[in-house]
Write a structure and sequence with these properties.
The chain is α/β, with parallel strands linked by helices. The N and C termini lie far apart (42 Å). 48% of the residues lie in helices and 16% in strands. The chain has helices at residues 12-23, 35-47, 62-73, 99-127, 145-165, 184-187, 205-218, 227-235, 241-248; strands at residues 3-7, 27-32, 52-56, 81-84, 130-135, 170-175, 179-181, 202-204, 222-223. Helix 5 (145-165) links the parallel strand 5 (130-135) and strand 6 (170-175). The protein has a single domain, classed as Rossmann fold (3-Layer(aba) Sandwich).
Length: 252
């Protein structure tokens, strides 16, 4: 029986990953900070005939993170699919941001996925199979303050890990969506329709998750949902830094 663990599972892409993985026959371990939201998603998973375990955890708290690491590494109840989805947004004005908030942002997007991947790999390698999906961003391919930087690290490490461990049965995929209709931007004070982004650039969560799970199954190291963002991935690195950074200012 396949069990998938999803961080940031209480809303947005995380909740959609839980739904689609359950539809594909996986049991779920749901990790997030909001117990009520996690329980609602767990109930929906159980209605589909799958098991759902809830782990309420703020991954920036050492004890909570240790509990999740231990669950990922539990060889008696193996995790076959790890989805590193938890994330937060920051203002792009690095010089005026609180530096401790920036450090927390760095930890949540880089250190914590690193720790969870490390915990997952030993049992996966012993079994000879497993899948890891890291939610990055199209921002990984443009200069976009610390957000682009942390996502670039996630893409680079996923590419290396997939090349290294795929021959041993473990695939690692970084998914790089563009703008997705979730509550992510609303938490930054940008209600839907007020983000300054053309409608054509918006994706829906269902499409992003479906395409990324397909690419995960195919063993791709990088998944970029939609043709328009595939084109953007190729174009953005060719632009002068100042122009690319200007494009990166959109949406904040």
């Amino acid at each position: 029986m396949v069990t998938a663990l999803v961080t940031g599972a209480s809303s947005g892409l995380g909740a959609e990953y839980a739904r689609q993985l359950a539809e594909r026959g996986a049991d779920l371990v749901l990790v997030g900070r909001n117990r009520d939201a996690l329980e609602r998603i767990a109930a929906a998973v159980r209605e589909r005939g799958r098991c759902a375990e809830v782990l309420v955890a703020d991954l920036l708290e050492p004890d909570a993170l240790a509990a999740v690491v231990a669950r990922v590494a539990d060889e008696q109840h193996p995790i076959e699919v790890l989805v590193n989805n938890a994330g937060i947004g920051m203002s792009l004005d690095f010089a005026h941001n609180d530096v401790e908030a920036e450090v927390a942002h760095l930890r949540l997007h880089n250190e914590i996925p690193l720790r969870l991947m490390h915990a997952a790999l030993t049992p996966m390698l012993e079994r000879g199979h497993g899948r890891i999906l890291n939610v990055a961003s199209i921002a990984a391919f443009m200069p976009r303050s610390t957000y682009g930087a942390v996502k670039q690290w996630l893409v680079s490490f996923s590419r290396w890990a997939n090349a290294t461990y795929r021959p041993r049965g473990i695939t690692v995929t970084a998914v790089c969506p563009g703008f997705v209709h979730t509550n992510f931007h609303e938490r930054l004070g940008l209600p839907r329709g007020q983000e300054g982004i053309p409608a054509v650039l918006w994706l829906n969560a269902e499409t992003v998750v479906r395409e990324s799970l397909r690419d995960l199954g195919r063993g791709k190291s990088v998944s970029v949902p939609s043709l328009r963002y595939k084109a953007a991935r190729r174009l953005l690195p060719l632009l002068p830094d100042r122009l690319a950074a200007g494009i990166g200012q959109r949406g904040r």
